[in-house]
């Protein structure tokens, strides 16, 4: 009996010791339990940039009429509830907003991570703006917190997402303030956009403020804020300062269209809308964006009217221009584009033209055009800005010229081109060959079907506010 008790005592001692030291013994010191903010920052920037560049090409370019899809094109015919090769940005935004929120939480609770607070707040504003600009009212204030939050978040009004505390404009201001107040010695690691340069993040934030203020400029007076940013001049003003990261020329970091089957790539050809605009401007960038059609004898380009019904229309691929080599054979010349100097210049040109700031609209317009040509690695023709692309060209207006030039530059960021069309009406887009939306150009993305299943009560309320989740009900800033 004495031996049995001794053995039991030893077993209990071992079990107690094992339990007491279990966490220390079974934790790999080289595999931290919580993801480091540097790894998360790199992941958020890369994942969002890579996925939305593909989405911008495969789906956004159809909505903006840069390209036409020959097949698998219910989305191209404006059946937006049936994404084919693209057209599902909702989970991309929410995954990265969730991961970015982890960075914010870490930076606000751990002194060693304080350097990440400003950039993460700026990224949250950037991602939230892109999300709400596409869908309108979306889950926001109760979203992104994972296990610490609700799995059925309410839908916030777009107006509130832009204007409320912890909304887009507030987070941009807080992000700038956090960077300006940072006095630590830690460096910002995992930064694919600015390589740790915090001043680059401040310029990025100010460019995003210009963009956000212009988006809502038809709803309220934003002139004083715009003028202050313009006068300070601390925004992205040259292509060397752009918020972008480079794709490579080989997997896994090449542009995704280069990694798909040749048939998927060949599904996209030049849109008739894009061809007419570039041809009217004698725009030499057409040779970067597209290649002459296969049956061409003189290096011509040919576009196809969007929204073809592939089940009833026979298309000869060689009769239409495919995308340029930059989108498949040499993707190292492409960027994942978050914000650029030319985009900022065009927003400021618009602001000046509308009298929202005191500045020379024509100079800003011409600067934007030159920057966009440089960005797309094409020499600006000497007579480009004195011909049909001139600021005051006959038959058009300066505002139409500004928005159309910004639209051209947003190739690969097709959702941006579509968003600016929804806000301004420029450029004039064409009626589809075989519309599945009663010949109407959609003015918002629909909420995905899984929202109705997983967040039913909140979804029902948001759907009711958009005429049963209609793609023809404008978002708040476009009402």
Automatic annotation (TrEMBL):
<protein>
    <submittedName>
        <fullName>SusD/RagB family nutrient-binding outer membrane lipoprotein</fullName>
    </submittedName>
</protein>
<dbReference type="InterPro" id="IPR041662">
    <property type="entry name" value="SusD-like_2"/>
</dbReference>
<keyword id="KW-0449">Lipoprotein</keyword>
<dbReference type="InterPro" id="IPR011990">
    <property type="entry name" value="TPR-like_helical_dom_sf"/>
</dbReference>
<dbReference type="Pfam" id="PF12771">
    <property type="entry name" value="SusD-like_2"/>
</dbReference>
